């Protein structure tokens, strides 16, 4: 998978992509991530990328020309399966979306900033808009990092035990059940006996029951989907 990210603040993204699973995915050649500084496409001597809103109002807006120029340059080099805009006013990222995107080959992500981007960019280029929650960040860089992490970890070969990803929360619209490790007894707090029994069909049944109970208590909305 190749992921290109257009950003006003590339430095914000370098650290998240140079550690842990995302770094290993790149080292294995399973994912390639490229950052594109929007300011390199800015207008005039001052590399302008933002301007005031038509109609008045507080806050600056990312201009259409720099973004358009950047996207068109990248599109001339390859065909993108999705061009994604990270924005709070969009449908919320979930595991189903991550699963679908993990099957793509080329993804382009545009991160917002200030009051967002000129609407014409969304109309002309964007194929999918994604939010990571009902709150506002300074920019879309951290949201893009969340999306990339959620997607790249699902690529076959990225995680050593692929079954682990398939049993994560939300894969079956349920939260994960409780998990335990050694010691079996910590200051009188014991691991449930069933997990020590070696009866794996019963263990699976227990985990399914606990996953349903936890989901019903914390996220009952998932049971309606």
Explain this structure.
The chain has 225 residues and is of the alpha/beta class. The chain has eight helices and nine strands. The strands form three sheets. The protein has a five-stranded parallel β-sheet. A two-stranded antiparallel ribbon has the order 3-4. The model has no long low-confidence stretch (mean pLDDT 94).
Primary descriptors:
single chain, 225 residues, alpha/beta, five-stranded parallel beta sheet, two-stranded antiparallel sheet, elongated
Structural shape: elongated
Give the terminus-to-terminus CA distance. Answer: 30 Å
- In the predicted model, the low-confidence regions spanning at least 5 consecutive residues are none
SSE string: EHHEEEHEHEHEHHEEH
Count of separate DSSP helical elements: 8
Structure classification: alpha/beta
- Largest sheet: number of strands, sense, barrel closure: 5 strands, parallel
Please report which band the strand proportion falls in: under 5%, 5-15%, 15-25%, 25-35%, 35-45% or over 45%: 15-25%
Q: Taking Cα atoms only, what radius of gyration do you get, to the nearest Å? A: 21 Å
Which strand order do you get reading across the main beta sheet?
A: 2-1-6-5-7
Give the % helix: 25-40%
**Total number of β-strand segments?**
9
Mean pLDDT reading: 94
